[in-house]
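Example (one chain per record):
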Amino acid sequence: MSASAALIDTLKRELKAQGVTYAAVARALGMSEASVKRMFSRKDFTLKRLDQVLDFAGLELAELTRSLERRDRLLSRLTPQAEKAIVADKRLVLVALRVLHQWPVDKIIRTYSMSEAECIRHLVRLDRIGIIRLLSGNRYRLLLSRTFSWIPDGPFQEFFKAQAQNEYFRTRFDGPDELMLFVTGRLSKSSREAMLVRLRRVANEFADLHNDDTRRPFEECTAMHMLVAIRPWELSKFAEMQRRK
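Predicted structure:
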């Protein structure tokens, strides 16, 4: 890929991270949405057009170049110390989760009893941890990869088990947008490996759909939480009934 093509791809990611749609760019530039889509898909930009898009998005060319250099260094996992710092403050947990959902800062402030100064203070902490890069104008860039996951049995998972697990399962899972499947069976090693691959693929598809939907108006989307789990397991009461070897 040429350097200019890579730069345009980075610009697309930056716009998506800010929730800037092709339609918004088209209105700002006085173009049709189809023309903007074609310009991005063909990566056919004049320097003047590039400057116009950067100015509209509040980005600098140098900032875009630095983002291009960092594109392969997005975090797929935090350190235990970073997770511990987050879960130690429930309001920081709230802001961190809303950032993962890519909420605009003003939406966080309007929704929760939190002043702008307090919200920015939490965003600064997340910037230091490395989850986001705080930008001017109360904007931020998410620095987590599409494969990001919390540490298995780490501080955040422990927080979820202690604070949220019971609440999460306190439903019949038969309402709109709800589903829970619990199946049992005997699987060979190859079948177990195949299931793990497919479940990881589902999780990646969830992440891709989330990223795509950041272009939609905020009110059209709902915060969804998907828990995917599979393991060798037997109810402890049944295990106690086994014959001793």
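Caption: The longest helix spans residues 189-213.
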